[in-house]
Specification:
By secondary structure, this protein is of the alpha/beta class. It folds into two domains: about 180 residues, Rossmann fold; about 120 residues, Orthogonal Bundle (N-(1-d-carboxylethyl)-l-norvaline Dehydrogenase, domain 2), CATH 1.10.1040.10. It is built from 13 helices and eight strands. An eight-stranded mixed β-sheet has the order 3-2-1-4-5-6-7-8, sandwiched between helices. Strand 1, helix 1 and strand 2 form a beta-alpha-beta unit. The protein starts with 9 loop residues before the first strand and ends with a helix.
Length: about 325
């Protein structure tokens, strides 16, 4: 993506933590001018410095996204601790403050006072419903959730979740923007608690947890079931296509063959786990024996995760 098409087009990223910095880098890779804002004095400037370092490291590793060099991308970034200044000239606001309903509501109420009617207001929330977040915004037709997957720079999926009043053209514009900057947007037709990704993820977590808790399998081996089994194909085809391809005559044939077995197994699932108490202590202990929970070990594993995800992203291209 060259910066010719996007010249002068400004995106405001509100919040300069991990997700805010990642979003800024994604938008910079598409050649957009990005204003990053944080209400903590000096925090946005520190975030900009961190972004510069990351862009240079990515360039060094030949993993930088977009057609512009690290220096060209960084030149499109500015940092702000004044909200009106951060919103001046923007056409798209991506909010990335911490997952607190009151904080998000207040922020969007303040943001609306500084932007025109056509500016899209988008939240990075992972679980709060658009109807809750935007309850104090006057014009809710331009409000929506764009939920990235952590880390957004390496994992391309973005869930686009409309507010009940969101106009179709707002969803279309955001879909086009996300596609232009190299993300993979998935549209939800209406809001639902947990959106799509976390609902599917929580179903997998719950059954994995039950199997470990009931002594069926170890923490290490249930992760192996995913990494060397389901995850191998799910990196390229989803559960619906998997069913379609796994029977000689497609999905209808698959359902005829396996629906009874699926229903029998699903009906044997236990209740939703508490994720607390003795079972949580035991599973946490087992996990920490594999990967100790000190910063050194966790940082090394996160770095490994990011490197592997970037390699997979290149392969998928």
């Amino acid at each position: 993506m060259s910066n010719v098409t996007c010249e002068g087009k400004i995106i405001s990223v509100i919040g300069s933590g991990l997700i805010g910095r990642s979003w800024a880098m994604v938008f910079l890779s598409g050649g957009y001018r990005v204003k990053i804002y944080d209400n903590q004095q000096g925090q946005a400037a520190r975030a900009a410095d961190e972004i510069r370092k990351q862009l240079e490291e990515l360039q060094e590793a030949h993993m930088l996204r977009g057609e512009l060099s690290a220096a060209e991308q960084f030149a499109l970034l500015s940092s702000h601790d004044d909200l009106p200044q951060a919103l001046e000239g923007t056409f798209f606001v991506q909010e990335c403050v911490f997952e607190d309903l009151e904080a998000k509501r207040s922020l969007f109420q303040a943001v609306e006072g500084h932007v025109g009617e056509s500016v899209i207001l988008s939240s990075s929330t992972s679980c709060l419903l658009p109807s809750s977040i935007f309850s104090r915004v006057q014009n809710r037709t331009r409000c929506m959730v764009s939920h990235p997957v952590n880390p957004p720079y390496y994992v391309r999926l973005v869930e686009l979740v409309p507010h009940p009043e969101t106009l179709p053209m707002v969803m279309d514009s955001t879909y086009a923007l996300m596609t232009r900057v190299g993300q993979a947007p998935a549209r939800l037709r209406k809001e639902v608690d947990g959106f799509a990704l976390n609902r599917v993820q929580y179903a997998i977590i719950a059954e994995s947890w039950r199997l470990v808790k009931d002594g069926v399998i170890s923490v290490q081996d249930i992760d192996l079931v995913m990494t060397e089994g389901l995850g191998m194909r799910y990196a390229f085809i989803g559960p619906m296509e998997t069913m379609h391809l796994n029977a000689p005559e497609g999905l209808g044939d698959y359902l005829r063959r396996y629906r009874e077995g699926m229903r029998r197994v699903l009906s044997s699932f236990g209740p939703v786990p508490e994720f607390s108490g003795q079972e949580a202590d035991a599973i946490t202990k087992e996990m920490c024996e594999l990967i100790p929970n000190d910063q050194q070990h966790l940082s090394a594993r996160r770095e490994r995760r990011d490197q592997l995800l970037m390699g997979l992203a290149k392969l998928k291209k």
